[in-house]
Amino acid sequence: MEEIDKIIHEPTRLRIMMILAGLEEADFTFLVPTLDLTRGNLNRHMEKLESAGYLKVKRSFKGKVRNTSYQITQKGSKALAQYWENIDAVRRLGKS
Amino acid sequence: MNSKQNKSKDQNTEKLKEIPKWTRKYAQNRTLTILVLIVMTAFFGMFVAFLVGVPLALAVAGFRKGNMILGCVGIAVLIAVLAALVKFYIFIFAKFGGKNKGLLDQIIDRWIYGREGFTSMPQPKLSKRKKWLDIFVGIVYMVCLIGSMELGMTGYIPVKYLLPFMALFVVPFGVYQYYVLWPRLGPVLLICPILYTIHAILIIAGVPIYFTGIFAVPLNMLLPLIYTLLTYMIGHLYSRYALKKLKGITHLEKEVANGRD
């Protein structure tokens, strides 16, 4: 069994990854209320996930408003799938 | 940690796994944008029909009654209206067509769902072959629609059987639309063909759920549009439910993480 990915294992980051796993793209405005976080807090988690290569950031303008949206990368998808495999393995071990 | 706590943690982990499902359901069912687009297009179509229809009717009436001035005024207004429409369509195409395709959807989406933020589902893959197939299916659908209207107007199809007859092409077209637009839009799109099929079956079974009278043909033909609007309305309501479910799970996980469980 591989080691649990500490970057994803953090509850907030896990939720971010799970949300983005269901979509092609989501922006900052959607993630803040959905996760019930402050903008600063979300930004901090996003930076960590981005530096790990799990997320791709797209900065653009929607009309006159600056918009930042996020997309899960292939590396991120793989890491998330692996994370759940490991967690399930740990849970199975705990039950036996 | 006792077994009760373990069980609760297990349940929360399973709920966490549902996040992508509810996120996807939410994003797929932000259908109010399409509903607004359909209503806008329908109203604009009626407005154009009115703009063209009035001078045309004036011109025809003028020439029939031998009133050349009225006839010529009608033609002049008609030409002016057509010129204005061409100019308007060129403006619209320059602003929302070509490279800007989808911009109008984005503007409406921002207007309706702006406060909730932006989410997107993968766009359907559009190969050249699929594009031509879409155009072909669209043409066939329009031919069937106009053909049914003609057959209904001329009495070849009794008003009672117009809707079940139309179900023969409206339902397969609805199902085709679902496959074309998936995963951008979800199974909610199947509501329209399902409702239409039920309606057609009920009519054949003898239930009098169809319009009669002088406007019977156009009113019966409008039913697919009504079911389409209903479908998108249901989609929007479902997106509210999905968002609530999603927030329920994500906020719950936060509470667990903060030790408030």
**Counting H and I runs of at least 4 residues, what is the number of helices of chain A?**
5
| Order of the strands making up the biggest sheet of chain A | 1-3-2
- CATH superfamily of chain A, called what? Winged helix-like DNA-binding domain superfamily/Winged helix DNA-binding domain
Number of helices of chain B: 9
Helical residue percent band of chain B: over 70%
The poorly predicted ranges of chain A are none
> Which structural class matches the secondary elements of chain B?
mainly alpha
Integer average pLDDT of chain A: 92
Question: Which regions of chain B are unreliable across 5 or more consecutive residues at pLDDT < 50?
Answer: none
Oligomeric status:
heterodimer
**Helix-strand topology string of chain A:** HHEHHEEH
Structural commentary:
The complex is a heterodimer of chains A (96) and B (261). Chain A has one domain (6-90): Arc Repressor Mutant, subunit A (Orthogonal Bundle), CATH 1.10.10.10. Chain A is elongated, with a radius of gyration of 15 Å. In chain A, strand 2 (55-62) and strand 3 (65-72) form a beta hairpin. A three-stranded antiparallel β-sheet of chain A has the order 1-3-2. The longest helix of chain A is centred in the last third of the chain and has 22 residues, at 74-95. Helix content of chain A is 60%, strand content 20%. Chain A starts with 5 loop residues before the first helix and ends with a helix. The model of chain A has no long low-confidence stretch (mean pLDDT 92). With 96 residues, chain A is an alpha+beta fold. By secondary structure, chain B is mostly helical. Chain B folds into two domains: 18-121, no CATH class; 125-261, no CATH class. Chain B is 78% helix and 1% strand. Chain B contains nine helices and one strand. Chain B has helices spanning 3-16, 19-28, 32-65, 68-96, 103-113, 128-153, 159-181, 191-204, 216-257, and one strand spanning 119-120. In chain B, helix 6 (128-153) runs antiparallel to helix 7 (159-181), helix 7 (159-181) packs antiparallel against helix 8 (191-204) and helix 8 (191-204) packs across helix 9. Chain B starts with a helix and ends with a helix. The model of chain B has no long low-confidence stretch (mean pLDDT 89). The chains are: A alpha+beta (96), B mainly alpha (261). The A-B interface holds A 11-12, 14-15, 18-19, 21-36, 62-63, 67, 69, 84, 87, 91, 94 and B 6, 10, 13, 16-17, 19-24, 27, 106, 110, 114-123, 243, 246-247, 250-251, 253-254, 256-257. Strand 1 (25-27) of chain A pairs antiparallel with strand 1 of chain B.
